[in-house]
Specification:
The chain has 88 residues and is mainly α. Helix content is 70%, strand content 0%. The protein has one domain.
Length: 88
């Protein structure tokens, strides 16, 4: 299996995960949720998105932009030096 086909398979899997996540978000009405539950759902969604963005850059072997890195760090509540970026 080539690196390209592996990346294509991973990309398809991430697309499927994103589609499922969108379906779950659309199925749940945050206004109907208790504030605590809505907050937990939003936090988990942000965490998954940060991890997927970090994974994308790790797989591609690229560095996140300063904005992306700041977003990942803010969501995770950490500050990573450049040499410690990559899969969480």
């Amino acid at each position: 299996m080539t690196e390209r086909s592996t990346l294509e398979r991973i990309n398809k899997m991430l697309d499927m995960i994103e589609t499922h996540a969108i379906a779950l978000i659309e199925a749940a009405d945050p206004r109907a949720m208790e504030p605590k539950d809505a907050s937990i759902a939003a936090s988990k969604h942000a965490l998954v998105m940060a991890k997927l963005l970090d994974l994308k850059h790790s797989i591609e072997g690229t560095e996140p932009s300063d904005g992306e890195d700041a977003l990942i760090n803010a969501i995770l509540g950490i500050s990573r030096p450049h040499d410690e970026r990559g899969i969480l």
